[in-house]
Amino acid sequence: MTTVSKDAQSADQTATAPDPSPDLAALAAALAPGALLTDPAGVAAYRFDFTADEDAGMPLAVVRASSAADVQATVRWAGAHGIPLVPRGAGSGLSGGSNAVDGCVVLSLERMRAVEIDPSTRTAVVEAGALNVEVKQAAAEHGLWYPPDPSSYEICSIGGNVATNAGGLCCVKYGVTTDYVLGLDVVLADGTLVRLGGQRIKDTAGLSLLKLFVGSEGTLGVVTRATLRLVPAQQPPATLVATFDDVADAARVVVAIGARLRASMMELMDQASINAVEDHKPMGLDRDAGAMLLAQSDAPGAARGEEIALMEQLCSEGGARECFTTTEPDEGELFVAARRAAIYAIERRGTIMLEDVGVPVPRLPDLLTGIAEIARACDVEIPVVAHAGDGNTHPVVVYPPGDAEARARAAQAFSQVMSLAIRLGGTITGEHGVGRLKRDALPEQLGPDVMALTHRIKHALDPQGILNPGAGF
Amino acid sequence: MTTVSKDAQSADQTATAPDPSPDLAALAAALAPGALLTDPAGVAAYRFDFTADEDAGMPLAVVRASSAADVQATVRWAGAHGIPLVPRGAGSGLSGGSNAVDGCVVLSLERMRAVEIDPSTRTAVVEAGALNVEVKQAAAEHGLWYPPDPSSYEICSIGGNVATNAGGLCCVKYGVTTDYVLGLDVVLADGTLVRLGGQRIKDTAGLSLLKLFVGSEGTLGVVTRATLRLVPAQQPPATLVATFDDVADAARVVVAIGARLRASMMELMDQASINAVEDHKPMGLDRDAGAMLLAQSDAPGAARGEEIALMEQLCSEGGARECFTTTEPDEGELFVAARRAAIYAIERRGTIMLEDVGVPVPRLPDLLTGIAEIARACDVEIPVVAHAGDGNTHPVVVYPPGDAEARARAAQAFSQVMSLAIRLGGTITGEHGVGRLKRDALPEQLGPDVMALTHRIKHALDPQGILNPGAGF
Fold first, then answer.
1. Which residues cross the membrane (chains A, B) (predicted)?
2. Which residues of chain A neighbour B196 with C-beta distances below 8 Å?
């Protein structure tokens, strides 16, 4: 891992040295009362996102904005003093994208939580700090649905979802965050507030700036508000659970199913994940199975049963040990909850480094086989859970807490898994973002020309390099 | 209309004057044999896209590239000589995006037509000049489907679809071009070929450069190849046709249906369009109806009938004059073909200026009422066809050929319709692009800050301003 200060310096070669004694009183005066936190204990609570990376820096101060005007004032102040800004939503990021850098101001959007549903346009206008679950609940009151569903949907913010182009379990049929963002309010590096898009569904006027900001991890601007597309409420899904001797067999069945129908969920857990969940909260999963496939259909009417039957047939033809189906949503939800809890269950086995690699779906068997080899070679555990229908997997490198030598082996495995995914035509991150933890691996994926293009855009939008330096690229 | 030479000059303030005697022999030598056209008659055939704008300029030469290397050589040569480049696919654009500017080189991708389907990843790797229909046909051979379906799908190229972020009739359920672009090969203004994305479905590594190039109308780079996402073949749709006394009633029913289900098509024709189609090719449409709604469901199994029944009920509750449904795909296709032919039928009534304005769906009645008022005030006909489920409409301003005074009134109406859409929270273009014809209206929609941001990105990627000057923004 590189040090944070090096990250911050290298983010933009034109970054100027920060003002050594910036006028925090002026910042406080420009903000709503109580927005600025400077006491060390309060500030320290904003050092980390969920990665709790020990290399995270110490912020100078924290701004808890309650309006776009607060965000603008903070960005202008930071620009005037050359102070790095680290935007932050709910702090649930898994790649260190909102871990602090030394001397930065953490710009938290947690107080900006308004959610307004417009049933006539089927849109939600949402402040960046609102939680994903809050949007889902507000939409449900109008018979509408906001599909993107990261496993962390109860605790992650829409701003963070936009910053990382977050995915989830339903993406295999319903797409990712960018597919639902119709409009964004963004504060640019010079403090200008721009409004992109709106409540219209199709719009190709001008450059796709809206899409450029989605997934930009706070490096090009600070998103303060999003207009999100809603769809009619999902039909209650039917669920299939199938076990396989071998994880590669399960992966092949995923490919076969995808060629025939669009399942609304297609998740995979390998043996180590199954056992981690059983250890954590026993629910009678088959500990001997090499892999478990969890699929759903939310097709309307009788088609739901037909899709489940076809998936069952393909599992059977693909060598499933056992296959169980249910049309009871509550029973299905038990298995989904187990899948959602898998990362937390695995976390109880040690300290973790969470991957988010993706490959073209037919390369899944090669990826899973290769990960097992890396685990053996580096002498670490790497349980895998996957949004298999999208080829997006979460290998979890586990090592004993406090063991520096084991940590080094884990870091090696973490890096090798990313290289493997790249070799298989894949990506180092499908939905969590590059953040600070995967930044060193990005050039291997993108190559020098795309990295140069990336830096040209960054420089055009943030010439001082104050926006989330060290994150994203 | 501004003159083209002014457009070319104002595209980028740093544009240098073009070399008055560029070395075309050197360009020819850098290309595959036969790629360069310089004879006046051959070159003149590449002046216009479908808009046939009389202000289009005369190219210096035309390059018909047969490889990315040809494209790179052309871009490098143009950069060295300061010559503007106008990229061109099939020339079916409806906004003048590939109309020539004086002294430019038209860079045609028409010879780059390879289409490769990979059924295991469900992707198509497609050269930019391949037609949309060729991708659909190649996918269908593997039981797969490429959804985006502009009405011109039989004659438009994938490169043009990417350049404009093209839509179509199925977008209301299946989304637009950007939703299916997984990868792009792009030649940048300095001749570098970058490869963005790939065959993976979820990928959030680095900035969303892929999405930035979609819809950029050849102003940021030249797309030479696209990797497109395919989905399982569509189920045969059932069709509903309903007529209404008033177009606003029909628009309200569109809103009501959208709140309950996701139709796979939701098109609307007003009285003038219905009559234009009947005049052109009689098929017994109700000439007295104020509007006709054409909807389809492709839901699987019995759900298809349920969706059609629900739509029928909502039409009836919404005051439909008549309602007809069919599960016969051929019968339904007759109505869809009538809808697709509407623009061509309207074109027989005079010279046209084709709009592509969109509004939030509930604003459709206001838009349609307002367009009727503009038609009266400007004394022109403005029949309307619409992808109503998306709020995307095609008002067609019709005026007598060769009548300069009528043309001026038509241009006024064209401009007023765009302003109306903007006032209703809409866009000047949902799927055709800004091109050269709508460029003057863009600042009114985007505002000065977003225009400035757009120019910063343009300048970062094309500092000489050689890529499609005068188009897009």
1. none
2. 450
Tell me, what's the ipTM? Answer: 0.94
SS3 (DSSP) at B168:
coil
How many CB pairs below 8 A link A and B?
282
Scanning every residue of chain B, which has its alpha carbon at the shortest distance from the alpha carbon of A302? B302
Confirm whether A446 is domain-assigned: no
Distance CA A320, CA A322 (A): 5
Tally the domains of chain B: 3
3-state secondary structure of B318: coil
- Determine which of A125, A207, A445 to mutate to test the interface with B (most B C-beta atoms within 10 Å): A207
Q: Measured between CB atoms, which of B202, B214, B360 is closest to A208?
A: B214
- In order, the DSSP letters of A267-318 are EEEEHHHHHHHHHHS-----TT-SEEEEEEE--STHHHHHHHHHHHHHHHHT
- From A216, A232, A248, the end of a domain falls on A232
Q: Which of B94, B178, B188, B202 to mutate to test the interface with A (most CBs of A within 10 A)?
A: B202
**Nearest-CB residue to A261 (from B121, B232, B432):** B232
* B280-325 confidence digits (pLDDT tens): 989 899 999 999 999 999 998 888 999 999 999 999 999 999 999 9
Average pLDDT over residues A231-245: 96
Residue for token digits 């104020």?
Answer: B290
Residues A228 and A180 in one domain: yes
Provide the CATH number for the domain around residue B174.
3.30.465.10
Q: For residues B141 and B250, state if they share a domain.
A: no
Contact B194 A442 (CB under 8 A): no
Report, in this order, helix, strand and coil percent for chain B, each rounded to 5: 40, 20, 40
End of a domain among B232, B259, B283? B232
- State the residue range of the domain holding A219: 115-232
Decide if B426 and A200 are in contact by the 8 Å CB cutoff: yes
Residue A206 one-letter amino acid:
G
